[in-house]
Amino acid sequence: MRIFDPHIHMTSRTTDDYERMAAAGVRALVEPAFWLGQPRTSVASFTDYFDSLVGWEPFRAGQFGIRHHATIALNPKEANDPRCAGVLDVLPRYLEKDGVVAVGEIGYDSMTPEEDHAFAAQLALAIEHELPALVHTPHRDKARGTERTIKVVAESGIDPGRVVVDHLNEVTVAAVKDSGSWAGFSIYPDTKMSPPRMVEILKQFGTERVLVNSAADWGKSDPLLTRETADLMLASGFSEDDVDLVFWRNPVAFYGQSGKLDLGDNEPGALFEGNSILRGGS
Amino acid sequence: MKPDELRAALDRAAVDWVDEAVRQVSADPGAIARLFPRAARACGRAPIAGGWSADEAARALLLAALPADRVAAEADRLYRYGDASEKRAVLRALPLLPVGEAGVPLLHDAIRTNDTRLVGAALGTYAAHLDAATWRQAVLKCVFMGLPLSIVDRLDERADEELRVMLAGLAEERAAAGRPMAADATGLLNRLAGTALRKEA
């Protein structure tokens, strides 16, 4: 089984997790930029974080044969802090990086005017840099937040097929699928979505335009929940081809719209860029 | 390799892209901020010649096209905002650029990382500008990280008694722990020990 985790915050995981993920079949992942638990107070904290998403994390992942890509953005929560507003000005440099395959996570946290501004500005950046967009939906007031998200996406002019609206549940999935955007689901041990609930949604709404991720952030989370959900799909009557569609071909199709997805030879165990050192000989 | 040799080693499509990009940078040096990260997508990442890859060569040619009075500042900024491949390209291009010693802080940054791609690229010919203490630490770091010492420019010429003492200490620790030391590091240690013996004799 090959797994592409389309949304996982590896910054908050140990190197042992990379090893366990590789053993479970994870061969590629996308790490979205988000907040880090502790609020940041300056633009420089963000640029150091972005640097790690296009530098250190891909290197760490590569040691286990996992291809690492990132999405870059000013997240909605910190968009409310005026000290962080300057992050919007440094984004164009990062959106041009080879490993950056979408603008994200953008969207709403508390649905403030500051969030409106950052969301619209970053959808415009996605269009300008020809990138898809990864949109977070709020924890609080989720249903109305999702409706508003769909409206803002429509107003921006971006092709809804280049947008994934994430952290959906039974209540919010239908509107997103009807809007033409991709439906994202974050599987957590207790909260947003569980493997059994996910399998029921896949039965009801099908396996097309669906991205299933483990998110695996600083909270109580598990980077192997993609594999657990895939196993449960098989046990529930889905075919291996269905699982491959949801956990590999769908994320490849979605992020492939960036034109920058590089899955290499995708052989677990291969040394990422290690060859470029060995062949370098300089 | 010199810039014209790097250009000659690129394939036709890459040369066309680089020539156009160099024209843009010559007309407007600020254009390099957008062109530099795009070079790998445009030219590929295949090995070409002399240990260079196509993207590194293309990026070096863009840097070489900058006006002499701007190249140090732009190289610094491109490194600062570069992903690991861009940083590596800046490091490899340093010996080709009229920057004097201005690139030394970039080497220090690269050597502080634990990314083998960057540490390795910091020990090319431009490392001649590194002071002896920093250079010895970097060589020892290569041994720790499992990098082949063949990437270190002028290794035997610069290796000195102090580096011999450091390597001997590592060899002793490794022996005590029952862990091996890389053959090339042991080889260097033996060569340095031989030199020391000859000096005593």
Automatic annotation (TrEMBL), chain A:
InterPro entries: Metal_Hydrolase, TatD-like, UCP005295. Gene3D superfamilies: Metal-dependent hydrolases. GO terms for molecular function: hydrolase activity, acting on ester bonds; metal ion binding. Keywords: Hydrolase, Metal-binding. SUPFAM superfamilies: Metallo-dependent hydrolases. It comes from the Bacteria. Belongs to the metallo-dependent hydrolases superfamily. PANTHER family: HYDROLASE TATD (PTHR42658:SF1). This is TatD DNase family protein. It comes from Asanoa ishikariensis.
Automatic annotation (TrEMBL), chain B:
It comes from the Bacteria. InterPro entries: EboA_dom. This is Sugar phosphate isomerase. It comes from Asanoa ishikariensis. The lineage of its organism: Bacteria, Bacillati, Actinomycetota, Actinomycetes, Micromonosporales.
